[in-house]
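--- STAGE predict ---
source: upstream dedup step, 1 unique chain passed
mode: sequence only
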Amino acid sequence: MIRVLLVDDQPLIRSGFRALLDIEDDIEVVAEAADGREGVELARTHLPDIALIDIQMPVVDGIEATRRIAADPALSGVHVVILTNYGLDEYVFDALRAGAAGFLVKDIEPEDFLHAIRVAARGDALLAPSITRRLIHRYVSRPRTPIPGAALDELTTREREAVVLVAQGLSNDEIALHMVISPHTAKTHINRAMTKLHARDRAQLVVLAYESGLVVPRTP
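--- STAGE serialize ---
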């Protein structure tokens, strides 16, 4: 059973998502919150698999709520999925940096929404390769001072190569083809790199790859 926490200040949005989730045999909504502070408290109480969190809310917004969940070792199993009205708006990259596993636009089709919940529950990032490329182009490509990444020294050559390919928006199958290895081995390299870099998921791995300077954005 996939346990879901809904965090949104609009009751109509929460009830709409809950109506979709409640009819699924493998998904259970364990709690609802109207702001980020309450959402973090309920996450600690219920330990959901997925926390669907609106990015703009009163009291504590979605980015700060995500940051608090990601910083709490007791909530390491909670995958935060950000809800937004605007797709790749200015807040999305900050949310990913804070520890979100990905994001969904609120007008998503019901079948895509349900698929996304199951993808996130498996621990996979909700960033399709095409979305990753757009994210890189619009946000990561902005000039930034690289953050030193001492942990990069712990990566093997193959792990570094896998991280670079993840940051370029390739899927596991594409990475396996590029590295001439099996998809399972590609996923193993990625998982080990996430462990060494203390990345919660694939989405944060993309952020770390750019902010550490491991990958340098191409000039459009």
